[in-house]
Write a structure and sequence with these properties.
The chain contains 8 helices and 9 strands. With 295 residues, it is α/β, with parallel strands linked by helices.
């Protein structure tokens, strides 16, 4: 009897086990692939859902409104007009100046019956008020004996008179000179005025009643805000000549960008301004308080 060969069935058994393992491994791979595909597909669906949510939110939000860029209007020229000599009168002429539709500066002489009353009235009406300070002329100096600044006065008297003028006209935020062809050329007087103005935070506009004035230059030295007159409007009390001087001022404002004119509280000056200011405003000229033109 031949011996039983155990090797053959063992080999077959091992082969069967190997086949079974291969089958199991393949199924596991297929299962993992399916799981991975499902996970990937699920993630894609979630991402698409989020994108759709964002789109819906954006649709619901109001459109963003960008702020409009405001451009400053361009003016042909900036014009400041000072009207001198208020305080003497309270009548239809002064009321007429208070009715003008422009930013004008009114210079009030201290020491007169209507000085305080008019200055308060002008301020309430929206105009700018300054002191029209009496100063000594090279010729005869008229009026305002209690306020006029003279070259033979001591420093204390000059300071007291300037302070008293502002106390009498509390609406005033600055000063220009009334007459003063002699005083405005005097270094001691102008330096004394500058110290008081600096102390009270006021400005000075040089009326330039003489070519020898040192008003503006002295104010610069003492760091007092200042400016000077470019054109006198009404040295001749004639409407045609006043209008011509106004046009000269207009032309200077075009050439320099800004210009300062000085007129007086006269009926003919009022008539010219009443007629021409609205026309010039329509043409693109801007009337401003003199305090906007200081340096």
């Amino acid at each position: 009897m031949s011996k039983f060969d155990f090797k053959t069935p063992v080999i077959y058994i091992l082969l069967g086990i190997i086949l079974i393992l291969l089958v199991l491994m393949r199924r596991m791979d297929e299962s993992n692939n399916v799981s991975k595909e499902q996970t990937l597909e699920k993630r894609i669906q979630q991402l698409e859902s989020k994108i759709e949510d964002v789109k819906n939110i954006q649709k619901q939000r109001p459109p963003k409104i960008e702020p409009e860029t405001q451009q400053k209007p361009a003016y042909k020229g900036r014009i400041a007009i000072i009207i001198d000599d208020f305080g003497y009168r309270n009548d239809y002429v002064t009321d007429g100046f208070l009715a003008l539709k422009a930013d004008l500066t009114y210079a009030v002489i201290p020491g007169h019956e209507h000085s305080y009353f008019f200055s308060e009235k002008a301020k309430k009406a929206g105009f700018e008020v300054i002191v029209h300070m009496p100063m000594e002329n090279t010729g005869k100096t008229y009026g305002e004996e209690q306020f006029v600044l003279k070259t033979d006065m001591d420093v204390e008297t000059i300071q007291r008179r300037v302070r008293t003028a502002f106390n009498q006209i509390p609406a005033a935020i600055g000063m220009n000179n009334h007459q003063g062809s002699k005083a405005s050329a005097d270094q001691r007087i102008m330096s004394t005025i500058a110290r008081v103005l600096k102390e009270q935070n006021k400005f000075f506009v040089d009326s330039r009643t003489t070519v020898e004035t040192i008003g503006e230059t002295t104010m610069k030295i003492f760091e007092v805000p200042t400016a000077s007159r470019n054109v006198f409007l009404d040295n001749d009390d004639d409407e045609e000549k006043i209008a011509a001087q106004l046009m000269k001022l207009v032309k200077k404002s075009q050439e320099k960008g800004s210009a300062i004119g000085i007129g007086h509280v006269k009926p003919k000056t009022l008539n010219v301004l009443k007629k021409h200011i609205p026309e010039l405003q329509k043409e693109g000229f801007k009337f401003e308080f003199v305090s906007k033109m200081l340096h």
